[in-house]
Specification:
2 copies of one chain form a homodimer. The first copy, chain A, contains 5 helices and 6 strands. In chain A, helix 1 packs across helix 3. In chain A, strands 1-3-2 form a 3-stranded antiparallel beta sheet. In chain A, strands 5-4-6 form a 3-stranded mixed beta sheet. By secondary structure, chain A is α+β, with helices and mostly antiparallel strands. Chain A folds into 2 domains: about 70 residues, Orthogonal Bundle (Arc Repressor Mutant, subunit A), CATH 1.10.10.10; about 55 residues, Ferric-uptake regulator, C-terminal dimerisarion domain (Dna Ligase, domain 1, 2-Layer Sandwich). Chains A and B meet through strand 4, helix 4 and strand 6 of A and strand 4, helix 4 and strand 6 of B. The structure holds a DNA duplex (30 and 30 nucleotides).
DNA sequence: TGACAAATGAGAATGATTATCATACAATAT
DNA sequence: ATATTGTATGATAATCATTCTCATTTGTCA
């Protein structure tokens, strides 16, 4: 299990790497053939542990996964639920803030909740 | 429903306000008597919508709720799973970063993943 | 007080995720 | 190349948190 990436895990990774967006386990499952539910979840866990992908728990819906290509924050629209990436790396700052408590920060997840551009405009138009 | 807080919702809020920590719906349910499961979930939703409490989706376990008394970030230990609060308000910075995309940021959730102090020391001792 | 809307709670239902386990595959040793 | 041993797979059952349903209760306000 550990360092190796099985053929199935590789296809899961390729879907995430090529689609350049946030996908649920179910969406990945639907886009592939001849792969079992459990295998997809196992691959996602494995790839997450290896630091190749990231799991986002946003709101109440099922978790979404993204391929890690850079450090960015997420804008979660509380109206339509979409998640948009914004380039911004706050890890250094966050790491500094955590230092006082003796924590080691490996990765910082920043989810900004509010309204996306479209919903902002829709609300203003009312 | 909207502005009013029912007696049951009030007791849920009081648990969160007094315990000063992160609680799951189940924990809140267990600490109260004569209150149904659905009612606890409904109260948590209602209080979240009113902006009195906050739902945190950390990792794979069930969501946790916290009473909002200030803006802070969360340190999630990837070894023992505990969530610790650290005083740090990054909302201004995050709002600024989101401005370029036309987003409105109401609240920023910052989850720093790494090792808590205890687990850091445990790892160093090995 | 009466009428109507909203909230409650018991339990069923849902939906996402995980566990089980027999089979298939891969790597290594013989 | 073949046996051996361990690991991955996938079909399905199971689990767990959360939501839905609906009959009953409670609250509101005319």
């Amino acid at each position: 299990m550990s360092g190796r990436i099985s053929a199935q895990a590789k296809t899961v990774l390729e879907v995430l790497a090529s689609k350049r967006c946030h996908l649920t386990a179910e969406e990945i499952l639907a886009s592939l053939e001849n792969i079992g539910t459990a295998t997809v979840y196992r691959a996602l866990d494995h790839l997450t542990e290896m630091g190749l992908i990231r799991r986002l728990s946003v709101g109440k819906r099922s978790a979404v996964y993204e391929y890690i290509r850079d450090q960015h924050m997420h804008l979660v629209c509380s109206r339509c639920g979409t998640v948009v990436d914004v380039q911004a790396d706050m890890t250094g700052m966050i790491r500094e803030a955590a230092k006082c408590c003796g924590h080691r920060v490996d990765f910082a997840e920043v989810n900004a909740h509010g309204l996306c551009k479209a919903c902002c405009e829709a609300e203003a138009a009312q």
